Amino acid sequence: MASYVEDLVKCGFLEMKLPRKQRKLTHKIWKRKWFVLRRKSPRGQPRLEYYLTEKACSEGRHRTSISLEDLTSVSHAHSRTHNHSFLLVGMEIKLFLSADTEKESLEWIQLIKELVLPEPKLYPSVQAGDIYGLYEVNVIPTEDSDRLELTGNYLMTVRKEYLCLHSAKTGERVQEWELDHLPRFRLQRLSHLQDLDKVLTFQAGRGCKTGEGHFKFLTQRGREILDCVKLQTQKLANMRQPLPHERHRRPSIDSVPCTRSSENETVDSLTSNSFS
User: Fold this and answer.
1) Is-contact 197 203, C-beta < 8 A?
2) I need a labelling partner for 48 at 20 to 30 A (CA). Which of 63, 71, 121, 162 fits?
3) What is the CA radius of gyration of the chain?
4) Between 118 and 94, where is the model more confident?
5) 171 and 90, same structural domain?
6) Angle at 234 between CA 5 and CA 209, to 5 degrees
7) Is the pLDDT of residue 126 over 80?
């Protein structure tokens, strides 16, 4: 099951318009199949897979894979019989698909575009300096985010000693948390059918300027944020460790080396349950 979800973006039933040769055999124009959209990973390029059933997918049987690497467009399509159809076009692909609802159709189109045909994004100027990562996030309301009046979209940066939030419009820094005082992070899938958006949760400790708190963000780059925070926190911990020749030195009254260190605990949860 791990290999089934590790690069999953979205899955669900779609109807596929069959090639003319297959129509002669089945006497059908459209056929319902279980589709899986997968991102680029060590297992392969971005691709769309389909199976006879959801069970066949979970068991890895009867898989057909369509590479999206050379996809040139994805858009709504007109159909006399299917109101929620869309079309994928590429160098070697022309695929008509149809979802059960307009909402589902829009989500498939959006996710495929974001995965294979992303539009260039312009970010506001964020104060330069020790920035190790810049990410888009959306605040999920909690008691503590309400207390700090955090709402809507922000840019999140990982810096040498801080995790910061910036205005998505101006780039101005609006909040910051000391990395040394963020004891726990957690990453969750938003839904078992969609794995692009993740819920990033972290706990702020007493040492933070914001005080203790519980904060949640919706982001498509949760894993990158976790990896960046973990790397930077480890660097801070290593910087504070005494040098080898100082470890066995008996400290004098006037000189006591600082050995304080901290490392974030990161938990990657792939359950679809939300935090309470």
Assistant:
1) no
2) 121
3) 24
4) 94
5) no
6) 100
7) no
